[in-house]
């Protein structure tokens, strides 16, 4: 199968989970003997190659042109309110149309290349996917990793929501990341009969606790001032409202009476950095909460999972939650938000012989504390939960398994 993939972020430009997903799954497609061409964004300075082969994948990155000065006359008031975000919207439009034009006019019409399917990820790339479908009649698979309404808890851009819905109506197939997300899409008016679920995955060879030494773990813990007998509670992710980090901080006074050696380590960047710093100061938790305001590379992320005693992700909205899988693969117990749209509720087994973590209400600091204290109960319990988590990853969530499922969906579409 020859697959054209439109995705906003791709190595070396990775912003979040979408970039990780795209890199891993396209590599697996190639190893399954499929031919993959990726169309993605260049960096802001335009320094990345506009056409290259990387790990057997052909990648196209158009050079950006700034159209933001012309946009106010042609875009809706909804977009004008974005302020500096108007420039991002302009970049996205240019990326979508330049890459669609390159695929249609250069690769297909001029170079005679033939493709079986075009795949577009989220609203960020679906404009290009829709354009290709119309011009050259390729079947379109639209992957929806999250929605504008969900990401903003109902306060987002109506223009972006309209782009998502139009993409859904024009696409031949919609692929989403969890059954919780499928339910959300149906509620938002996406055509139910087009929606299929294929989870995200993790590389258990890369995320393997046996590959980490005691010395590496000691260095990570020391960097936060943690002693050998301290219990490291880890949050890793974007510092934005929907991730529930503020409620996690508020849970600490409920945890410390039971576990006075508990220390919360928060790693990430986002709009809430100043607010969270002030919250810790106001609650007089400076001794117990440690921040690192950085987007850390994958190698360091793996070391942080290895160093922690429990990983906590109290998201208010989480279509999938790849971080939970990463922690599970590293044999760490996980505590996850399980209210509303939560793919993590499907990933994490919260009871029975295969239990690997706890489901909590992310709006309730005392419930978050209950999940954490339950996981920290004893070293034996932490080890048991962690072993179960890795077993679950190996059985259900390897990238090879996820790629096979996704290719199966594409083949199903082509047969139709």
Summarize the structure in short.
This protein has 416 residues and is α/β, with parallel strands linked by helices.
Textual characterization of the structure:
With 416 residues, this protein is of the alpha/beta class. The protein has two domains: 2-201 and 398-415, Rossmann fold, CATH 3.40.50.2000; 209-396, 3-Layer(aba) Sandwich (Rossmann fold), CATH 3.40.50. The chain has helices at 17-31, 77-80, 85-110, 122-136, 148-151, 158-170, 179-187, 214-223, 245-255, 273-282, 298-307, 322-329, 344-347, 365-375, 379-396, 399-415, and strands at residues 2-6, 35-39, 51-54, 57-60, 117-121, 140-144, 173-176, 195-197, 231-236, 262-267, 289-292, 310-313, 334-337, 357-360. The strands form two sheets. It has an eight-stranded mixed β-sheet with strand order 3-4-2-1-5-6-7-8, sandwiched between helices. Strands 11-10-9-12-13-14 form a six-stranded parallel β-sheet, with helices on both faces. Helix 9 links the parallel strand 9 (231-236) and strand 10. Helix 1 crosses helix 16 and helix 3 runs parallel beside helix 4 (122-136). The longest helix is centred in the first third of the chain and has 26 residues, at 85-110. It is globular. The chain starts with a strand and ends with a helix. The mean pLDDT is 94.
């Amino acid at each position: 199968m020859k697959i054209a993939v439109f995705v906003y972020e791709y190595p070396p430009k990775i912003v979040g989970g979408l970039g990780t997903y795209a890199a891993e799954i396209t590599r697996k497609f190639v190893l399954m003997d499929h031919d993959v061409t990726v169309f993605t964004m260049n960096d802001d300075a335009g320094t990345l190659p506009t056409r290259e082969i990387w790990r057997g994948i052909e990648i196209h990155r158009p050079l950006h042109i700034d159209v933001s000065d012309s946009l106010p006359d042609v875009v809706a008031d909804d977009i004008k309110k974005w302020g500096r975000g108007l420039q991002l919207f302009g970049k996205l439009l240019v990326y979508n149309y330049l890459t669609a034009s390159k695929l249609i006019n250069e690769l297909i019409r001029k170079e005679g290349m033939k493709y079986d399917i075009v795949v577009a990820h989220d609203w960020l790339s679906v404009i290009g996917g829709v354009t290709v479908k119309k011009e050259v009649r390729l079947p379109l698979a639209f992957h929806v990793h999250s929605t504008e309404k969900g990401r903003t808890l109902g306060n987002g851009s109506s223009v972006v929501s309209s782009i998502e819905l139009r993409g859904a109506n024009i696409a031949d197939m919609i692929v989403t990341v969890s059954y919780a997300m499928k339910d959300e899409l149906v509620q938002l008016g996406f055509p139910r009969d087009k929606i299929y679920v294929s989870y995200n995955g993790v590389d258990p060879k890369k995320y393997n606790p046996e590959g980490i030494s005691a010395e590496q773990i000691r260095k990570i813990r020391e960097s936060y001032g943690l002693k050998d007998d301290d219990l490291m509670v880890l949050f890793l992710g974007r510092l934005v409202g929907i991730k529930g980090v503020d409620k996690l901080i508020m849970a600490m006074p409920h945890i410390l009476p039971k576990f006075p050696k508990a220390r919360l380590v928060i790693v990430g960047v986002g709009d809430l950095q100043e607010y969270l710093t002030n919250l810790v100061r106001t609650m007089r938790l400076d001794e117990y909460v440690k921040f690192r305001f950085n987007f850390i590379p994958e190698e360091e992320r793996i070391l942080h999972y290895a160093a922690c005693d429990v990983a906590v992700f109290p998201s208010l909205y989480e279509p999938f939650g790849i971080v939970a899988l990463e922690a599970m693969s590293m044999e760490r117990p996980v505590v996850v938000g399980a209210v509303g749209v939560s793919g993590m509720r499907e990933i994490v087994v919260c009871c029975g012989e295969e239990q690997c973590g706890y489901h909590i209400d992310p709006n309730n600091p005392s419930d978050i504390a209950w999940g954490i204290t339950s996981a920290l109960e004893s070293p034996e319990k932490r080890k048991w939960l962690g072993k179960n988590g890795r077993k679950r990853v190996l059985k259900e969530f390897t990238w090879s398994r996820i790629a096979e499922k996704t290719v199966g969906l594409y083949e199903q579409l082509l047969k139709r």
